Structures are given as structure tokens and as C-alpha cells.
Known about the structure:
The chain is mainly alpha-helical. Helix 20 (409-423) runs parallel beside helix 22, helix 21 runs antiparallel to helix 22 and helix 34 (690-703) packs antiparallel against helix 35.
Amino acid sequence: xxxxxxxxxxxxxxxxxxxxxxxxxxxxxxxxxxxxxxxxxxxxxxxxxxxxxxxxxxxxxxxxxxxxxxxxxxxxxxxxxxxxxxxxxxxxxxxxxxxxxxxxxxxxxxxxxxxxxxxxxxxxxxxxxxxxxxxxxxxxxxxxxxxxxxxxxxxxxxxxxxxxxxxxxxxxxxxxxxxxxxxxxxxxxxxxxxxxxxxxxxxxxxxxxxxxxxxxxxxxxxxxxxxxxxxxxxxxxxxxxxxxxxxxxxxxxxxxxxxxxxxxxxxxxxxxxxxxxxxxxxxxxxxxxxxxxxxxxxxxxxxxxxxxxxxxxxxxxxxxxxxxxxxxxxxxxxxxxxxxxxxxxxxxxxxxxxxxxxxxxxxxxxxxxxxxxxxxxxxxxxxxxxxxxxxxxxxxxxxxxxxxxxxxxxxxxxxxxxxxxxxxxxxxxxxxxxxxxxxxxxxxxxxxxxxxxxxxxxxxxxxxxxxxxxxxxxxxxxxxxxxxxxxxxxxxxxxxxxxxxxxxxxxxxxxxxxxxxxxxxxxxxxxxxxxxxxxxxxxxxxxxxxxxxxxxxxxxxxxxxxxxxxxxxxxxxxxxxxxxxxxxxxxxxxxxxxxxxxxxxxxxxxxxxxxxxxxxxxxxxxxxxxxxxxxxxxxxxxxxxxxxxxxxxxxxxxxxxxxxxxxxxxxxxxxxxxxxxxxxxxxxxxxxxxxxxxxxxxxxxxxxxxxxxxxxxxxxxxxxxxxxxxxxxxxxxxxxxxxxxxxxxxxxxxxxxxxxxxxxxxxxxxxxxxxxxxxxxxxxxxxxxxxxxxxxxxxxxxxxxxxxxxxxxxxxxxxxxxxxxxxxxxxxxxxxxxxxxxxxxxxxxxxxxxxxxxxxxxxxxxxxxxxxxxxxxxxxxxxxxxxxxxxxxxxxxxxxxxxxxxxxxxxxxxxxxxxxxxxxxxxxxxxxxxxxxxxxxxxxxxxxxxxxx
Length: 949
């Protein structure tokens, strides 16, 4: 009797009134499955336990046309109760029948009170209802408790009686009862009790809410739900709100149809139709789906709403309990569901319903063969892609394949390949191979699909396969006399892939000289992707050649300026161009392009392109000394990229190298070794990324003191690069690192030879970063009298390139060299500047080394940082706080008892340490608590004075 305390109290009151000789009547009202019959049975048990005589009857829909059906059930039980079988017949005389029944009831109460119970009053025949009205009018003074139940599924009159609201109708008789109670759904505590009994453990509140929402707390539905859980074999521990929402016990629909069988022959078809279009059902739509008249559909929907099976809201008519809707859907064969969805889509399209609603029916519908259906599905896919919902876009396009003709199929298949690429390059390769196989003839669709396939293959790291695909198609296009522009585009892509494979330091003749490039574009390349491919081939060829930096930057900018339709369009090519900019000295510009690509990929939900963009941003950040950003980007590429498949792909392999180096520079040596020194890693990464991995691993090994193995990695890196024809040190300055390793092992000749080669190559290309790195090695290995000048030149170039971490290294080297030549004051300045840069880069290993250098140089590092809020002395912090409050320099000087010159000096240092330029920024720094005492370190004034000196 869960959640039935008030009803049980009413039953007890009725029984007590009968025991006291006062007649009482109670009517329990509720929908199907609310527990009316259960309460009647409980009342009968209780009455018998208290010495009552009991008679009961249950009306059924099929017996409603049988006159006196319920009355005769009662009469037979009363005769049995009295121990007699004699009965006087009063054929056709309703009043006499009622009077005879009244005499029997009076006789039955002679020795004990009597409970008269009638279940499902709404199905009671009219003569029995007439007798019941007779009885309710004569209960006063009788020790009788009349209990009845009335369902909301009330039919119309069944002949012979009055109208629906007459005294001889269920509603009319109900008005004669002393008390009426409407049964509600079970409350949350009762639902939780039932779930706990089923699962054997405490019910999760979310699961309780889901079960109550699905069933409305209806006991019949809750029990059916629990039985369905048992049938499906779900273990109690895995029952979740999501699983509950998807369950649809067929028994619920069958039970409901059995109860409603007498109301209309069309009720099943109507409920099936509503389950398909809910919650937006309407009479015209249901009439269209069922083939009945609109008026009949409207009447039946009205009755079902009145009975509590359906509910009407702002969007239309739907089921009152979601579980009932799921049950009706589950009982239909899949073919019937697909047919109804198709008919619903047609009807909604004809009535100009919202596109989203029509598409919701198109997806599960049988093919319609209509052009408008394909158009809506493609539009829905575009909207899903714009919102980053790749799975939904995939479903829409796959459904569109069933509606499209031969002309549309290649385009849809190619778009599906793009979506697969967003999830990972390997699934995209499989999808695009099927796409190419389905496209017949040498159409442009086939050529574009092959380019997509080549890009996906290259992303997996299989550049030879990508090149094979493009070469075969390029040859076929030449033989078939394809349009000139298409052939030019394929030649450019082939040239790019040949560069990656090391088949030449410059693009093949497919790509014209830079001087003729604009003319080539205007004469041939009207298509953006062809212009992009040709410019990209020029840019990458110029960089790989190591002699054409200006051309590389110019053509990269041209290529990146071409429009794209989606982020997947030539994504690998565009990210390669970002690296061209980064390695040619335009690191900040490269970072901006990489960030834009990452934003677009994130918005479109392309994990693959987003991971590649993060790997590129990791390199850009490392080159400019932003180690924290590098770590974040590299971690993101590995953790949020495509699912691992047992082998590294292009993005993960690239990100791994920069992650390892950034971890080491940041001081996490153990994690750096786990990332870069994993056994067998060189066999798990794509061949095109192996030189980079060996470079990072070699540097780490040398830094850890394992110079021999580190040198071996660096020289293998160089061998692979030379094998591919990649001589430009802007890509990987392996010679400088190997030269320093040779010097540590005592091989000065090999070291100087490598340095000379790298410096010459770097000067040929002209990228400040590459030249600065080579000059650092040259300065460290050169004659003593030249070292300081060479290192100073290196520092200047690295400063121009924005390579803060490399500049910090060179300044440290320069400080050490000046210490060697006893120029202590200058050495301290360079060491302090190096420490400030290293701290800004978060290069903790270098910071610790510099602290030791500064101590050896006679400087006293006053704290762990030279920039940021923690670097402020107490005097500087006090001055900054007063300035942030708006005080003038004169006012601050008076408040602190110092000169105005001292205030100006303090503020200039504050601006430098906080990387700000004016008092407005200082006020913002104070507002965000960067100047709070908890942030700043406190030191004695004499230490501050010494450090200032």
C-alpha cells in the first residue's frame, strides 16, 4: 500500500461507519493501473478480518451489454452468504429486482456488517447501475459499506439507459457516493522503495527520478518496468536513467488495449500513430496516418486525453507517460514504424512544418524517393556539422544515400569521408576507399575523393601510399585529357608528397618558378584548392631547398589566404604551411593561423584536425619559449585526439616529441623519459616523423649525461633527413646539437665541421632563429677571443626571432664566457637577463642552473624569480599598491618618506617585472590580487637593498 495512506484511512473510516450501523460509501477514481483493484482486494481482506460479510463484483467491457450482469453476481453471493438458493425472479421488472436485492442485503446484515464492493464501475451494465442508485439512496441506517472504483476510461451509454450524465450512467451514479477519492501516482519515496527491492541496494536518486518520469508513478507501469528490466537481463548495478528511458515493455500496450477494447475499434491504430508523432500529434495528422476521418480522430483523441492515456500541451498531443509511448513503439514491427514515419514526413512537409520536425521523421523512415527529402537531410547534416555534432551529421548523410540518385551519391560519400576523418584518419581511409570504388568514371568527384583519401593516408603516416594514390590519378588525368586546372592541382599535390618522401628538394616541374607564379594562377587556377596546392608546393619547396625564405613565407601566406568550405579541406596541407611560417621566422603569425584552425576544428567537431593543430601549436610555442602553452597543446593533441589504434599517427607522433622536450625543460625529467625513451617507440611512429622524434630523444639523452646514445640518435636523425633531402637546419638543427655532443666526447674536429655546415646552411636560408642556434654552437666551439662576440650576435638574432628560451641559453653561455674572461659585472647582467627569460618561459631546469651560475658570479639571487608578482621587493610592492590607488608620485613619496626619483625607479621596475606599461594596467593587477601579500614574497629590507645594489 505504498503512497496510499489517505485511501487506507478512508477505507478504515467506511468500515468503522458500517460497524456502527451507519451506511457509508466510497468511490475510488483513477486511471488504468493506478491500483484501484488492489485497494478493493485490500478492503475485502480487512473487512473479513474484522468479521464483515463481503460480496464483490467486477465489471468487464465485454459484459456491459448483458443486463443485470453485476447485479446477478451480487445476488448469487448474497444467497450463498445467507445459505439459501431460493430467489424470486422478476423478469423485466427493474424496480422489483432492486427491491429484492435490498431485502437480501438487509437480511445479510442481520448478524454482521456487510462490505459491498464493485470494481470498474464504468463498465457496469445499465440495469445494475439503476440498482446501485437504488442502494445508495437507502444506505442510511444500514450496517453496509459500499465501495466502488471508477476508471477514467468511461464509455458512452450501452443502450436502454440515459445519457452519459443521467442518473443511470456511471458518472450519474458516482455523484451519489458519500465520499470520492482520486488516486495519484506513487511518490518518489515509494518508487525508491520498489527500486531498492529490485536492485538489492540503495536506489540512485537520478534513477528514481527517471523511473518516476517514465511511468508517472503509475504502479502498473512501474511493475511492468521492473519486469522488463528482469527480462532484458540488466544487472542491478548497470541499471541507469539512460537505459530506463529506452525501455518499452510491450505488455503495457497490450494491457492498455485490452482495457480500452470496448471504446473504439480504431483505438490501437490511433495510439500507434500518436507514438510515432508524439508529442506533436494532431487530429489531421493522426487521421492521415490511420486512414480514418478527421472528425473521428479528433473525438478519439479527445477521449484518450480525458482518460489520462494522452496529454495535450503547447506542441500538440502526446502520451501522459513516456513508458506507454515506448511500449506502443516497441509492439510495432520495424517495417510499420518506418512506413508511419515516412507518411508523417510527407504530411508534415505538405503542411510546411518546421524542417527539424520533418527531418526527425525522415531519419527512421523508409525511403521516400523524393528530392525534397534529400535536400532536408543534407541541410540537417550541414546544421549538425556547424554545431559540432558529427554523429548526427553522419546519420543524416547515411540516410540521404537512400534518397539520392547517381549524380548526388559521390558528393554525399565524400562528405561522409570528411566526417570519418574528423574521428580519425584510419576510419576515414576505409570509408574513402569505399567511396572511390562507388564513383564510376573519371569524374571530378572521383578526383576529389582520391585527394581526400591521400590526405587521410598521409595523416596515418603512410605517405608512400598517399603518394601512390595521387601519382596514379595524376597519370590517369593526363592520359584522359582532364581539364588543365585539375591536372595542375594534382601535379602540385604530387610535388608536396614527393617532398615529404624525399624525392627532391624542390617541387617537380609541375610547379612553376616563383616569378611566374601569379601568371600561372590567373591563367589556369581559378579554383581555390588548386591555387592553394600550387602555392603550398612553392612554399614548402622553397623551405626545403634551404635558400628561399622570403619566397616560402610569401607563398605560404598566399596559400593560407585561400577560402575553404570545411576545416577538413586540405587540413594537412594548411597545417604544413603554418609550420613553414613558424620555421621561416614568422612564429607569431604561425601561432595565429594555428589557433584559428584549432578553433574551427573544435567548432566543427573534428578531433583529428584539432589534434594536428594542437601538435603544430606545440611546436610554435616551444620555438618561442612558451613551455606552458607547449605542454597544454601537446597534452591536448594526445588526450583529445583520435582514439589510439596501437600505432602512432602523424599528430600524436609530432606532439609526443615536443611534449617530451617541454617536460624536460620544465623540470619533469621522469615524465620526459617515459614519453621519449619508451622501448620500441621508433618502430611505432610514422617514418616521416621519425627524424623529429630522434632529435628530441637525442637532446634529452645528452642532457641526462648519456652523451653516446644521444649522439647516436642525433646522427641517425641527420642521416634520415639527408636521405630525404631535407638539409635546411630551420627544420631540425641536428648538426648543432651533435656538434656539442662531439665536443663533450673530445672530437673537436667533427664538432667544428658540423657547426660550419649548419651555420652556412642557416645563413643561406636566413631564418633568424636557425642562424642564432647555429651561432650559439659556433660561439661555444670557436676560438676563445671570438666566443663572446659570436654569442652576443646569436643572442641578438634569437631576440629578433622571439625565441626566448634559446635566447636565455645563449645569454647564460655569454655570462659564463664573460666570467671566464673576468668580466664579472657584465656576466651578472647577462645571467640576470637569462634568469628572467628562463623564468618567463617556465624553464625550471635552466632557472636552477642559472641560480648556481649567479652565485658563482658573486650575485645573490634574492628569490626564485626575476619577473612576476613574486619578484617584487616590499618597497616596490608598497609603491605599486599606492600607485594603483591613484596617488601621484609626489603623494607616494610623501607617504613613504622617499624621494620622487625613488618612486619613479620603483615603478619602472614594477612595470618591467609585471610586463605592464601604465597605471591603468597596474590598477587591474591590483584588482585581480596579483599584488596581494599572499602572492608576493617578503624579504628583509637589507636583502632588498643588497639585491638592488
